[in-house]
Design goal:
Blueprint lengths: L2 E8 L2 E8 L2 E9 L9 E10 L4 E5 L6 E4 L26 E8 L8 E3 L4 E2 L3 E5 L4 E3 L6 H25 L5 E5 L8 H23 L7 E4 L4 H9 L4 E6 L2 H14 L7 E3 L6 H4 L2 H8 L3 E3 L5 E6 L4 E6 L9 H23 L3 E6 L6 H15 L6 E6 L4 E6 L6 H5 L15 H18 L4 E6 L1 H8 L3 H11 L2 E6 L8 E5 L1
Parallel strand pairs: 1-14, 11-12, 14-15, 18-19, 22-23
Antiparallel strand pairs: 1-2, 2-3, 4-5, 4-7, 4-13, 5-6, 7-8, 9-10, 10-12, 16-17, 17-18, 19-21, 20-21, 22-24
Helix pairs in contact: 1-2, 7-8, 10-11
């Protein structure tokens, strides 16, 4: 498959898109006034230990205190399957700790933290204080796995030998990333040395004056640099950048770490915006819509909520050429592949419930589940899928580390307060009538004016005109209405005269 990385920048926003065969697969957005803290390492202060939740709140200098669970506060060199100790035996109020952000603050929740630190390089992830050597599960060929683990063990021994002769001892474990496939001993050595230097600088900052001060010790790379490090893969054919400064920085980064990839870097200088050429803007708008149309005529209805995301599949206009069971099966197969892509593009995390169209054929059910699982294997975020439940639902989870596309680009509707529904003009008329009766009995005034939206006034003066006449007779007060263009359907005010 042909992959391309597109990097588009404006003075206040940077966007990175990954496309496959010209179709958007992943989109990342970073704004200068809201740079995400994921990957950052902080010197924080424990604000409150909560034994009942086996967790603690830690001040790291952000608007909301971070949250750390006991499992994430355990020593990194502890034996596997060791029972999680009580949080009070791990942390105490006022304690200063080094923590890393693993999940962004989302909604009312603060950042999720861990004391099991890690720093990513081009080919490796360094884990200070941990002696484990591992490898990404996405490197599947057994001979390559054995070769890389052998090279890594050799590289670590060489670097530790160098340290004994020149620098203070640094101890840590490493995980080989997917990008390490095909890497040489020299490339792994360079990555290890770079990560050792980076961690040494973090330790120096921690020991600097003002050691009791909450502060940032390490900040992860900016978005376009992370793209060079994290989503650049062997099957990426081209990297197009529409900003000359970012192009120069990206070129320097590749020159230092992966010079063999320099030929694929290209500065885009055409008049037509880069994201328009690849229809990325259109795809982003589609990813914010509730309904996703399938090529067959079926559709997905995606409802993203705080607790979970639900996805409902419908045949829509697809009637098929065979029997009904075959039509349903084909729709579900297409939906399975589309769902995997939508989860990536929208960056939906947490619990996802998928309601496929009911199938009676057991083999069809197995094939749809296999199709969904296979499509999710390409997802960079960790996913876990259960089988079909008795109700015909598939439950799955997708690791959430940053805000979804909807959370980044949208805000709660001020009129419906997130309900995705608003009251009808008829309902608002009856609420206004009740309020008029309450006001009329409580105050001695001559007239009442109601300020409200156009659609509410229209109904008042048409269908509800007789009700208004009755209210004037009962209350003994003149009632009139005034349209306010700034009011939504659910807004109104009563003014007394």
């Amino acid at each position: 498959m042909s992959f391309e990385i597109l990097i588009s920048a404006t003075p206040r926003e940077t966007r990175v898109a990954l496309t496959e065969q010209g179709l958007l697969q992943e989109i990342y957005i970073e704004r200068k006034n809201k740079v995400g803290p994921v990957g950052n390492i902080y010197y924080g202060k424990v604000m409150r230990v909560m034994p009942g939740m086996q967790a603690a709140f830690v001040d790291i200098g952000l608007d909301k205190a971070g949250f750390i669970h006991a499992a994430d506060a355990m020593p990194v060199n502890i034996e596997p399957n060791t029972p999680i100790p009580d949080i009070v035996n791990l942390l105490r109020d006022g304690q200063l700790v080094v923590v890393q952000v693993v999940k962004e603050p989302i909604g009312s929740k603060g950042a999720r933290l861990t004391m099991q630190l890690s720093i990513a390089g081009r080919y490796l992830v360094f884990m200070p204080g941990n002696r484990h050597l591992g490898i990404s599960q996405r490197i599947e060929q057994e001979t390559e796995r054995e070769r890389l683990l052998g090279l890594l063990d050799q590289a670590v021994n060489i670097c530790e030998s160098d340290q004994q002769n020149s620098t203070p001892e640094l101890r840590g474990g490493f995980i080989l990333r997917t990008a390490a496939e095909g890497a040489t001993l020299e490339e792994l050595l360079n990555d290890i040395r770079f990560l050792y230097k980076l961690w040494a600088s973090v330790e120096r900052r921690q020991q600097e004056s003002g050691s009791n001060k909450v502060r940032l010790l390490y900040q992860d790379l900016v978005l376009y640099m992370r793209a060079m490090r994290d989503i650049l893969r062997a099957n990426v054919e081209r990297i197009r950048v529409d900003d000359s400064e970012i192009f120069a920085e990206a070129r320097g980064f590749l020159q230092d770490f992966t010079p063999e990839l320099l030929p694929m870097l290209e500065l885009y200088q055409e008049e037509r915006p880069l994201f328009d050429v690849y229809s990325i803007e259109e795809e982003i708008q589609k990813a914010l819509a509730r309904t996703v149309h399938l090529k067959s005529g079926g559709n997905l209805v995606i409802d993203q909520n705080e607790a979970m995301t639900t996805i409902d599949i419908n045949t829509g206009a697809f009637i098929g050429n065979r029997n009904q069971e075959e039509t349903i099966f084909r729709t579900n197969l297409e939906a399975a592949k589309s769902i995997a892509r939508q989860l990536k593009v929208r960056n939906i995390g947490g619990i996802v419930i998928i309601d496929f169209i009911d199938m009676h054929n057991e083999e069809h059910k197995r094939q749809v589940l296999r199709a969904l699982t296979a499509a999710l294997e390409k997802d960079p975020a960790r996913t876990r899928v259960t089988g079909l439940s008795e109700l015909g639902l598939i439950e799955m989870t997708r690791k959430r580390t940053r805000e979804s596309l909807q959370q980044i680009l949208c805000q709660e509707c001020p009129e419906c307060q997130g309900r995705a529904r608003i009251k009808t003009p008829e309902t608002m008329c009856y609420e206004i009538f009740r309020e008029i009766l309450r006001v009329a009995s409580a105050y001695e005034n001559q007239a009442i004016r109601v300020l409200c939206a156009q659609d509410v006034v229209d109904r008042m003066l048409d269908e509800e005109s007789s009700t208004i006449a009755n209210l004037e007779m009962v209350s003994g007060k003149k009632i009139n209405f005034q349209i306010d263009g700034s009011y939504g359907t659910e807004q109104f005010d009563i003014v007394l005269f």
